[in-house]
Design goal:
Oligomer: single chain
Shape: globular
Distance between the termini: 39 Å
CATH superfamily: PPM-type phosphatase domain
Number of strands: 13
Strand content: 25-35%
Number of domains: 1
Largest sheet: 7 strands, mixed
CATH architecture: 4-Layer Sandwich
Length: 272
């Protein structure tokens, strides 16, 4: 990989914010934004068990921070390892049976001899990519409503209010349906990513996400405004957002570069 210090003007900037919301008693989300590994995990299980599962996912993925020549296979294997750790935690504490977590994020990896993004998800937490003001959902939800949308039974708009919108078909913490989907993309100077739990996307539309990104070029400010919008729209779930900026001249081919990363921790709002 190219030494990022040899690339003046190219910088990864990151913002992260989390909020318990207006309804839930505690926050079962967890986030990681460190050393080229960015992740949001949305725990499930109640009675703090979801918080345990999302925490295990984050700590397991943190083991990849600083690893040289990271590959997409490394990322996939680490997610499998997180699944195994969650199942082991359940075996040791039967009262936590049923706990699990989603996981979505991106990692800077080596592919074909150059640096790329590995974008991954298990469950219905999402990764969006913004280039030149456009916004595209990269990940595909592992959920019952997504299957209904793909079958043409309901529309995407109907999916946002469907009573089964919180039912996931894959998650970490299961014996079978834990496999992540992974996309590999070359970096693009000027691009931005939004990694979020469904506490954001169940409350605000993609158009609102795009507008907030455009109005807030600073990633920390963007993450805070996105979380604030979700809470003000109802805040019926925990909401966590990580925003990643790859600052540079828009459109530069960066497939053989390695941007320098600035680490950050998610800032809490309500319920800290």
């Amino acid at each position: 990989m190219v030494d990022p210090d040899e690339l003046p003007g190219l910088l990864l900037r990151v913002g992260a914010t989390t909020d318990t919301g207006r309804v839930r008693a505690h926050n079962e989300d967890a986030a990681l934004a460190e050393g080229g590994i960015f992740l949001v995990a949305d725990g499930m299980g109640g009675h703090a068990a979801g918080e345990v599962a999302s925490g295990i996912a984050v700590e397991t993925m943190r083991d990849l921070v600083g690893r040289a020549d990271l590959t997409t296979d490394d990322v996939s294997r680490q997610l499998v390892h997180a699944n195994e750790r969650i199942l082991s935690a359940v075996s040791s504490h039967p009262e936590r049976t049923g706990m699990g977590t989603t996981a979505a994020g991106l990692a800077l990896v080596t592919a074909g001899g150059s640096d790329h993004w590995a974008i991954f998800n298990v469950g219905d937490s999402r990764v969006y990519r913004s280039i030149s003001g456009s916004l595209t959902q990269v990940t595909v939800d592992h959920s019952e409503v997504q299957e209904l949308v793909e079958a043409g039974v309901i529309t995407p708009a109907e999916a946002r209010v469907h009573p089964a919108r919180n039912v996931v078909t894959r998650s970490l913490g299961t014996e079978h349906a834990y496999q992540a989907d992974v996309w590999v993309l070359p970096p693009f100077a000027g691009e931005r990513f939004v990694i979020c739990s469904d506490g954001l996307t169940n409350e605000v539309s993609d158009d609102v996400v795009r507008e907030i990104l455009q109005a807030n070029p600073d990633p920390q400010a963007a993450s805070e405004e996105l979380v604030r919008a979700a809470v003000e729209a109802g805040g019926r779930d925990n909401v966590t957002v990580v925003v990643v900026n790859l600052d540079g001249d828009v459109g530069d081919d960066l497939s053989e570069t390695s941007p320098r990363a600035e680490a950050t921790a998610p800032r809490g709002r309500r319920g800290e």
